[in-house]
Amino acid sequence: MTDFSYQLYSSRDWDQAETLAMIGALGYAQCEGYGAFYNELEELDVLKTRLKAAGLHMKSGHFALDMVENNPDGVIAICEALNIEHVYVPFLMPDERPTDAAGWRAFGARLEKAGAPIVAKGLVFGWHNHDFEFATLPTGETPQDLIIEGGPSLNFELDIAWVVRGGKDPIETIQRYGKRITAVHVKDIAPAGTKDDEGGWADAGTGIMDWPAIMSAVREFTSADLFVMEHDNPSDHKRFASVAIENARKF
C-alpha cells in the first residue's frame, strides 16, 4: 500500500501537536515540514517526540532559498536530526523573480549551486513550483523549462494543481519532466465559483482534476516516491486530511 504524506502548511492555523496526532491516526505515514518547524534547533527534540508518537516520518521539508544558500550546514543538521531525505525550495517572491529567459536560466544555476552541499550529503534537492513557472515569456519559453536548463541536475516536487492553474496540461507536464520529478503534491481545484472561502481549492479527489489518470502517469513516467496531500486554505483541516487520504487510496 502506498505511504501518503501530508504538507503541514495545510494545518498552519491549528496546533502542531494536535495536527501530528490527527494525521497519524488517519493513516498518514509521512509528513512534509516547512520553515516554522525549524526555527530553533533545540526545539527539534520536541518535534521528534511528537513525530514518533504519531508514527510519522518527516521525509521531506521545504526550506527557504536564503537558508539553503547562506546556511546549508543548518539545513543539513535539521535533516539529520529529523531524518529528512528530500529538501525543496518552495517559492520565490514576485519582486525577486526574473523577467527574462536569461534570468530564469541563471536562477536554475543558482538553485543547483545552492543545493550542491545538500546533494553531497546524499539528500534529494530540488524546486517546488507554483503557477508562475508555467507562464509563457514573450520569447516563447516558460520559466520552468529555463530553470531546468540552468540547473540540469535539479529535481522537482511537482505541485500538479498549480500546473493546472498555470494553464498547462498535467499529464503532458508529467511526461515532459519525467524522472526529474521526485515528489508530487496531491491537491485539487474546486469547480469555478465554488469554495471561494478556501481559495478555490478542493480536497483531493473532490475537484475538477482527474487524479486517477494523473497518478497513473506519475507512476509510469516519474521517479516520485513522495505523494504529499496539500490544501492551501482549508476551513477544516481534519475534514481535508480525512477526505484526501481516503480518496488517494482509491487512485
Uncertain spans, ≥5 residues at pLDDT below 50? Answer: none
> Rg from C-alpha positions?
17 Å
CATH architecture label name of the domain at 63-224: Alpha-Beta Barrel
Give the distance, in angstroms, between the N- and C-terminal Cα atoms. Answer: 11 Å
Proportion in β-strands: 15-25%
Calculate the mean pLDDT score and round it: 96
Instruction: Write the CATH homologous superfamily of the domain at 63-224.
Output: Divalent-metal-dependent TIM barrel enzymes
Question: Any key phrases for this structure?
Answer:
251 residues, alpha/beta, TIM Barrel, eight-stranded parallel β-sheet, two-stranded antiparallel ribbon, 10 helices
Description:
By secondary structure, the protein is α/β, with parallel strands linked by helices. The chain has a domain at 63-224: Alpha-Beta Barrel (TIM Barrel). The protein has helices at residues 16-26, 44-54, 65-70, 72-82, 101-120, 143-150, 160-165, 170-177, 211-221, 237-248; strands at residues 5-6, 30-33, 57-62, 86-89, 124-128, 155-159, 181-186, 188-189, 201-202, 227-229. The strands form two sheets. An eight-stranded parallel sheet has the order 1-10-7-6-5-4-3-2. Helix 1 packs parallel to helix 10, helix 5 (101-120) packs across helix 6 and helix 8 runs parallel beside helix 9. The longest helix is centred in the middle third of the chain and has 20 residues, at 101-120. The radius of gyration is 17 Å and the shape is globular. It starts with a strand and ends with a helix.
